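In full, the data:

***
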Amino acid sequence: MADFDGPLRSDPPGPSWDELAEGDSRSVPEFLRGESWQDLGDEKLSVDRYISPEFFARECAKMWPNIWQFAARVEEMPQPGDYVLYENAGRSYLVVRQDDGSLRAFHNVCLHRGRKLRTESGWATDFTCPYHGFSWNKDGGLKKVPCRWDFPDMQDAEMTLPQAQVGVWGGYIFIKENEGGPTLEEYLAPLPDHFARWRHEDAYTTAWVGKVIKANWKACAEAFMEAYHVSATHPQIMPFTGDANSKYMMWGDHVNLAITPFGVLSPQIEGEATEQDIIDNFLKYNGRVVEPGMTLTVEEGMTARASMGDHNRKRFGKIFGRDLDEASDSEVQDALTYNVFPNFSPWGGFQPTVVYRWRPWPDQDHTLMEVRLLGRLQPGEAAPQPEMILVPEGGSYADHLGQLGNVLEQDMNNLPEVQAGMKASKTGLLRLARYQESRVRHFQHTLDKYLAREDDDA
């Protein structure tokens, strides 16, 4: 079948995601049903949030030290002595596996003359500064001071490496610089309850690709908070994507969700398509839940959505090493894109998982956008240690992530022009759709709460 290329319709979209889910062959989880949405108004945003060095400096001082940050996955550091270098917003940390299997995070700065102790992840018995040889044990305690006689007033206690808080959930390792505030479990709620069904603790990194984007980190993150951009940016996926049928949910200050249905025709396309047409386009352009060269015939009386559900329950069941007969059609094909404030986005469902992370790299005009793909470990299987592939300037995610990478590159083509456009804006203002871009406003409201704090330790 040729690509569907009918005109867009102007009337409101068809069935909601909940109505589509009601027709699924298996029940979707109760926590995905109903409404969990806030009308946050339609106030315009200033471009200064994205282009101003002063605004960026406030984020670095008031927001980043007070939030839980996804720093690593457990498979990156399985053995005592393994450590991960995590850097963000002007800070540098070493997350270290201790001899008893616990984790500690230290500021990666020598307490003598300020050199970074490490410049890459690895394994160590201690951390010796390459400048003068001061060294620390894996637990952060002082080990050795060359010419100790020349520091007569130095006390070992004052030379312990400063620590950050560490928390682990679902195989993800988080750090938080400042004391106080919510625990990790409180911060993530209700995400752990949702993901108990999908068990990311049984996952491991199968691919990890980073690329520096010439745009603000928030602009990059917000590009993945709504499906409103699909018709203009990703028109090739509309013949199997219910973009305007997407559902948006939010909980508290830190967690929100977009559910975009697949296996249905976009309600913005005028005209009709057969269920087989929808499947054929799904197989051609979706790089996440289909395999290259895969074929699938829609049996008489079946929908494309149900057919993909049946196929993927069996396929992912084998990959996961478990029976997925109870999994809903949604959970094996839809985009369940969670976002944890400010820069961690794990996808839900029983399927190969996508995880996004965005970090300013190093300023308000550049972002390191990382994309991980997570598979599932078979019982008794050990995860390999992953390493990030950094895409060189001019390179493409598609070189490493296939069809998914092609879709990502369409987003990347927008973002530098978004940054440049905001700098050139005469009005200096941005307007958001009230519903489809409500996750962006939720994100910005939470950021404002952190920036409004009286002091950095609040």
User: Anything to note?
Assistant: The longest helix spans residues 398-424. Confidence is low (pLDDT under 50) at residues 1-7.
